[in-house]
Structure formats: structure tokens, C-alpha cells
């Protein structure tokens, strides 16, 4: 049986990003996963665990703690601030004014600077600058487009998402949902059972329906198949990151 996960907001002087971590993750593994997000070497990290109100629950110095230690052993933890304890922290290596450079420089001028977070990501091939990331993104988009060509609006459908049992309903919408992503295509599904996450609307914009609460959802095209043979069935719900 897989261990439970916790969604934790990882924060530093340069980033703030929510990630899912296994609740029983070891300290050394946690630091290794945080490093690509913050750029702070594990040997220079100090982890400050906080609850939703920002109250400090614990402070961990990885260099002085056993690697087997489990930082996320307190279910109240919702945020981890990563302090850079090195003599030359990455935030100091950025040029003055980089924190609000978007208000001062064009994208072209900013890209020419060497001591910026952007340049650091390029040098270390992180995020969108990782060749493997681009290959995965291109492959995902190709698969999404191939599946889109097989789908029919207002047809019965089956939805198969990772970590969830099969669900069925009607495909009611296919298109861009700016509230989720400015470019990605999503499929709006009216489920037979209350196993969705909304009523066919996102942040006040109605894309189909509206239907009853939790009878609507938006999923990736590769999760959907349409056809008259997908008759209703009973399902139990669970959560997925590929759905809104």
C-alpha cells in the first residue's frame, strides 16, 4: 500500500510552489526534491516547517540531522520555508533589482543578464530548459491531439485518470479553459455520478451546463474515450492532479 501524500507549499527567497510529497519521505530525499525548486544546495538548507497560519512548528538543519528523519511527521505542516545558509546565497547572486525586473526591463534585456535566476536555470537546464522536459511536453501534446481527433461532443464517454477508477458520463465541452491554462485543451465532462470537482464552470465562467455540484469536471483529452457503448456505472471518487 502506498503511503499517504501531503501537499506542501515550498517557499524560499526566490520561489513559492505547491508540491505533493509522501508523508513518510526521508529528510535526504525531501532535500533532493526541494533543490530543483529553490536552487539551494541540500548542505546549505535550513527547513522551517509552518502551519496554514504561518506559525513555526519545527526547524530542521539537514546537516545536523539523521537522513532517516521524517520532516513531514506533523499533519499540521502546510508550508516549508527553505533558508539558504551558505556564505553566498543564490538570492544575493542575482543583480540588484532582479526581484522586480519585470517592471524595468524588456524580456530581451533580462535574458541577456548573466547573474539572474533565469540564467541560472538555463545553465543548469532546469524546468523548461531541460531537454527531457521539452521532449516530454511535445510527446504529451502530440498524444493529446491524437486523442482529440477521436472524440465527439455530446456523446457518451469513459474517463480513465491515473489513480482513479473508471468514470462515465457525457462529453459536453472540448476547448481551451483560460482559467486553467491559456493554451492547453481540456474536455468538459458531465458525470453520471457526483464524482467530479465542479458544476461545469471554472471561476464563474460556465463551459457547459451548469450541472449539479460535483457532476462536472475538466480532464485531459488522453483520459477520455467516447462511444455509445459507455453506459452508466457506479463509481467511487478519488483525487487526481490531471483534473480540475
TrEMBL record:
<dbReference type="InterPro" id="IPR036859">
    <property type="entry name" value="CAP-Gly_dom_sf"/>
</dbReference>
<keyword id="KW-0963">Cytoplasm</keyword>
<dbReference type="GO" id="GO:0051010">
    <property type="term" value="F:microtubule plus-end binding"/>
</dbReference>
<dbReference type="Pfam" id="PF01302">
    <property type="entry name" value="CAP_GLY"/>
</dbReference>
<dbReference type="GO" id="GO:0031122">
    <property type="term" value="P:cytoplasmic microtubule organization"/>
</dbReference>
<comment type="similarity">
    <text>Belongs to the TBCB family.</text>
</comment>
<dbReference type="GO" id="GO:0005634">
    <property type="term" value="C:nucleus"/>
</dbReference>
<dbReference type="GO" id="GO:0035371">
    <property type="term" value="C:microtubule plus-end"/>
</dbReference>
<dbReference type="InterPro" id="IPR000626">
    <property type="entry name" value="Ubiquitin-like_dom"/>
</dbReference>
<feature type="domain" description="CAP-Gly">
    <location>
        <begin position="185"/>
        <end position="220"/>
    </location>
</feature>
<dbReference type="GO" id="GO:0005737">
    <property type="term" value="C:cytoplasm"/>
</dbReference>
<dbReference type="InterPro" id="IPR000938">
    <property type="entry name" value="CAP-Gly_domain"/>
</dbReference>
<protein>
    <recommendedName>
        <fullName>CAP-Gly domain-containing protein</fullName>
    </recommendedName>
</protein>
<dbReference type="Pfam" id="PF14560">
    <property type="entry name" value="Ubiquitin_2"/>
</dbReference>
